[in-house]
Each structure stands twice: as structure tokens, then as C-alpha cells.
Write a structure and sequence with these properties.
about 190 residues; alpha/beta; 5-stranded parallel beta sheet; 4-stranded mixed beta sheet; 7 helices; 9 strands; globular; binds guanosine-5'-monophosphate
Length: about 190
């Protein structure tokens, strides 16, 4: 596979603010695109089909896996999440930088499939900040928050598996740091 350097994976625990960082990255650098994942989780208020995710039923998701349409997938807090193959290959072959915002298991799978991809781990500035961001969202039950906090702590242990680690103390600054990292690694290949 050529052009793997155009593939970028961004992970970080739920509440690290990685989605905000990646949307700032795209606002500042519109030539960068993100992949829209498929999921079986419920749509949150304000989310849109085809923009935030493709929302699928479990049987529909499993059919896509069986048909080879999902590049990588995992189960996260009881739901399926996966990257549609159609979101990635055509674009990196065309030299477009594509950012996947996915969790740690998916990131490891992508790195095995595309060793030339750049993997970046976004850390929250502190645990207290992470918890505050998760609660501040106000869309989840206490049980769901506890599940995400536990998973977040587990995920922090994976930071050293990534090519690069950044701290999200400020979304714009962090987005720019990621941009410079991507450019530097693309120029080195
Ligand atoms: P959320 O429910 O908060 O939107 O996402 C939960 C977690 O699933 C986040 O860490 C998010 O990055 C991850 N995720 C979203 N899409 C994918 C995907 O396609 N594959 C994998 N492996 N993880 C994903």
C-alpha cells in the first residue's frame, strides 16, 4: 500500500477533547479530511447521520463486517464502532490527508494494516479535567459516565504505543501541534 503517510490516527480517552482538537485542525487546514465511522450507539442530541457517524443497527453493522466493508472495528462500552473502508483508501491514494479519530484497539489495528500511518495520542491536561469534560457534556447517565471514566484510565496506559503524544491544554494550540507533526512526518517520507 502506497501513501500510508497520508493516514493519521488520533486517539485519546473519552473526555480528552480530541474531537474538538480535530475539528479545529480541519477548520485551520481545510485540505485535511476526517473519516466518518459507523456505529451502533444511539445518536446524541445535535449529532447528524453521515456527519458524526453512520448510525447502524447491530445486524446491519455485522453484515458490513461480513461483506469486508469495515477496515477495522471494535466494541466500546457495549457498542460497535468501525471505519468504513470506503472512507480511507481512495482518499489516501489521491494524496489527501485523512484523520481517523478512533479508540486504542482500532488504532493498533490500523497501525498493523498501515505501518506508515502516523498515530497520535491526545492526553487531557489532568484527570480532573477529563472528568469535568465528560460530565459537562450532560448527555450521559451516571452509569455511562462511570464506564467511560474506567475505560479512560485504561486507555491512558496505551499512550506509549503511539508515534506521538500531545497534551490538550488548549484546543487550538494542540491542533497546530498535530498539524506540524503530520507535516514533519509526511516530509520525512
Ligand atoms: P463516542 O461514543 O464518544 O462518539 O466514541 C467512543 C469511542 O469510539 C471514542 O474513543 C471514539 O474515538 C471511538 N471511535 C469512533 N469511531 C471509531 C471507529 O471507527 N473505530 C474505532 N476503533 N473506534 C472508534
Amino acid at each position: 500500500m502506497n501513501n500510508e503517510q497520508y493516514l493519521v490516527v488520533v486517539s485519546g480517552p473519552s473526555g480528552s477533547g480530541k474531537d474538538t482538537v480535530v475539528s479545529r485542525l480541519m477548520q485551520r487546514h481545510p485540505e485535511i479530511e476526517t473519516s466518518v465511522s459507523a456505529t451502533t450507539r444511539e445518536k446524541r442530541p445535535g449529532e447528524e447521520e453521515g456527519v458524526n457517524y453512520y448510525y447502524l443497527t447491530v445486524p446491519a453493522f455485522e453484515k458490513k463486517i461480513a461483506d469486508g466493508e469495515i477496515l477495522e472495528y471494535t466494541r466500546y462500552c457495549g457498542n460497535y464502532y468501525g471505519t468504513p473502508r470506503s472512507e480511507v483508501d481512495r482518499r489516501i491514494d489521491a494524496g489527501i490527508t485523512v484523520v481517523l479519530v478512533i479508540e486504542v484497539v482500532g488504532a493498533g489495528n490500523i497501525k498493523r494494516l498501515y505501518p506508515g500511518a502516523t498515530t497520535i495520542f491526545v492526553q487531557p491536561p489532568s484527570y480532573a479535567e477529563l472528568e469535568a469534560r465528560l460530565r459537562g457534556r450532560g448527555t450521559e447517565t451516571e452509569q455511562a459516565i462511570q464506564k467511560r471514566l474506567a475505560r479512560a484510565v485504561e486507555e491512558m496506559g496505551y499512550a506509549s504505543d503511539y508515534d506521538e503524544t500531545v497534551v490538550n491544554d488548549d484546543a487550538d494550540r494542540c491542533a497546530e501541534e498535530i498539524y506540524q507533526l503530520i507535516r514533519r512526518r509526511q516530509q520525512a517520507t
